[in-house]
């Protein structure tokens, strides 16, 4: 019955989310609607979980959400070498300007500008690139929101040279409610806790935000463009119409 135990844990997390963050998400959605009314864009960058697939280019989704997606270059690992006295270790990428340059390039390539809103999703918020992305966005006048597991992030030592983590940089923090270590269950016989929940909670929070945003926009007489399923006979044509409408209105 471990599956049921996990399901019950997700129910508990949802209850905590409703109590602790639902109103916060609604307020952010109202604010986002005001920004969109002035021509601003809402962006999302997800660091390694399901939001890059869940909220974009799909049936029932909004056309207005700007996707920040990176394809990380891979370099062949160096051969294994015996430890040599006095050998200079490879420089850690966290100590170079690579993350900073990539973050600024990302902000530039996505055409972020002052008045836009950027949501950054990461359970830990520890990767140096995340800190650099938030800093680069703020430097461009973009307001930032972190979707972060606060209990987890607050226990971790920073990797960024500034000594900061993502939740210490962004303008707003929304707590995923998930446990430290991103594992919810203790299982007899396993040394490690089991059952990650940040992906599920992040997706739920993402759709809650989009639902509240839709409601806020309708209240402002701005009907957002919604994608219809391509599986219907007229799906491709409806998609073309939706894309044309979005490019005309910006939402």
Quickly name the level 1 CATH class. Alpha Beta
The outline comes out as globular
Number of domains: 1
Major β-sheet strand ordering? 2-1-3-4-5
Tell me the fraction of residues in β-strands, as a range: 5-15%
Helix/strand-derived category reads: alpha/beta
**How large is the radius of gyration?**
20 Å
Examine the coordinates and then state which fold CATH places here, giving the name of the CATH topology: Rossmann fold
The parts where pLDDT drops under 50 for at least 5 residues are none
Distance between the termini: 45 Å
Number of helices: 8
In short:
With 251 residues, the chain is of the alpha/beta class. The chain is built from eight helices and five strands.
Structure description:
By secondary structure, the protein is of the alpha/beta class. The chain has one domain: Glucose-6-phosphate isomerase like protein, domain 1 (Rossmann fold), CATH 3.40.50. 41% of the residues lie in helices and 9% in strands. It contains 8 helices and 5 strands. A 5-stranded parallel sheet has the order 2-1-3-4-5, with helices on both faces. α2 crosses α7 and α4 crosses α5. The chain starts with a helix and ends with a helix.
């Amino acid at each position: 019955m471990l599956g049921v135990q996990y399901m019950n844990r997700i129910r508990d997390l949802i209850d905590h989310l409703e109590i602790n963050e639902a109103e916060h998400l609604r307020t952010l959605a109202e604010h986002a609607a005001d920004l969109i009314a002035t021509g601003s864009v809402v962006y999302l960058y997800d660091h390694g979980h399901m939001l890059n697939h869940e909220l974009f280019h799909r049936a029932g989704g909004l056309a207005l959400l700007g996707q920040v997606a990176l394809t990380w270059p891979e370099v062949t690992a160096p051969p294994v070498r015996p430890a040599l006295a006095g050998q200079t270790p490879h420089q850690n990428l966290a100590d170079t300007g690579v993350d900073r340059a990539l973050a600024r390039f990302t902000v530039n390539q996505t055409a972020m500008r002052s008045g836009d809103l950027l949501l950054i999703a990461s359970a830990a918020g520890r990767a140096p690139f995340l800190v650099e992305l938030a800093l680069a966005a703020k430097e461009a006048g973009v307001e930032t929101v972190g979707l972060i597991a606060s209990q987890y992030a607050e226990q971790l030592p920073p990797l960024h040279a500034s000594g900061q983590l993502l939740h210490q940089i962004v303008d707003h923090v929304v707590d995923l409610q998930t446990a430290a270590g991103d594992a919810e269950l203790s299982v007899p016989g396993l040394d490690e806790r089991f059952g990650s929940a940040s992906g599920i909670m992040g997706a739920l929070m993402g759709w809650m935000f989009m639902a509240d945003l839709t409601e806020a926009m309708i209240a402002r007489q701005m009907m957002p463009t919604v994608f219809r399923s391509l599986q219907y006979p007229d799906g491709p044509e409806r998609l073309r119409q939706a894309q044309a409408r979005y490019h005309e209105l910006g939402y």
